[in-house]
Amino acid sequence: MNSLKGKIAVVAGGTRGAGRGIAVKLGEAGAIVYVTGRSTIHSQSPMGRMETIEETAELVTKAGGKGIPVKVDHTIETEVVHLFDRIKKEQGRLDILVNDIWGGDPLTEWGKPIGEHSLHKGLQMQKQAVHSHIITSHYSIPLFKENNGGLIIEITDGIDYEPRGNFYYSLAKISSIHMAQAMAMDLKEYNIVVIAVTPGFLRSEAMLESFGVTEENWREATKIDPHFIASETPFYIGEAIRCLASDPHIAKKTGGVYSTWELSEEYAFKDADGSQPHWGNYFIKNVKV
Questions:
Q1: β-pairing, 96-99 with 8-12?
Q2: Selected residue with higher pLDDT from 255 and 289
Q3: Structural domain includes residue 232
Q4: Domain residues for 211?
Q5: Is residue 2 in some structural domain?
Q6: Given this model, what pLDDT does residue 2 score?
Q7: Count of CB atoms situated within 10 Å of the CB of 11
Q8: 161: which DSSP letter?
Q9: Mean pLDDT computed over 94-110
Q10: Residue 18 lies in a domain
Q11: Is 148 buried (19+), middle (13-18) or exposed (0-12) by CB count in 10 A?
Q12: Does 45 have pLDDT greater than 80?
């Protein structure tokens, strides 16, 4: 479980959801994890949620690593520059970057096609979920090059280029896949591995709240959405990222797009409750028509 001891990681967008699960699992493997985001104990982000980067950092440390919270708005270039300058000064290296910046839930107008969807919200989504990833990757790369290698992971939704039910949402999530593939090509000669990873139906804090359930009684939500039975906790994708970051043969995966469910088969990990959700199989049998 100390396979990442001494490794320096950044989980960009680690306040809650998948980001929190990933940060904690990297900490469990012994990593020093810089947890970034806009929600702190002193101020809420426009998301208006109570989770904070300090809470995530504490969970990382409790799990066995070292969590370091840093308030960063990844759409603001100077704040991202300061983050990596700080890491260089404090650690002298960077081994892992997880790009999980999102914040697009309140900006997505499901059921509204382009032309009817708010243009302002759609463009803001691209700023938060695409531009932020580009800015963060750009300023991380010099540290990776100095280290002669490293791992960049783009967190996305889905494994292909099919539409995801909303023009702006699709554009943001598919962009993460293409960014991973394009960066992998550009950075291969520097031994920098870049991949994209998707969770299945994520049982995040916000999703539980939207259904009016908790992690203890989450199955009650299947009365509202039967597909929730195939959902997974944020720690499932956390396990996936921990396994990938610990894989000595990770270079073979550069440029690829991977899912929690297929990685769970490859690395034989399970979710927090001991189950092994497989959204891919469930989707084919119960959702896709």
A1: parallel
A2: 255
A3: yes
A4: 8-286
A5: no
A6: 67
A7: 37
A8: S
A9: 96
A10: yes
A11: exposed
A12: no
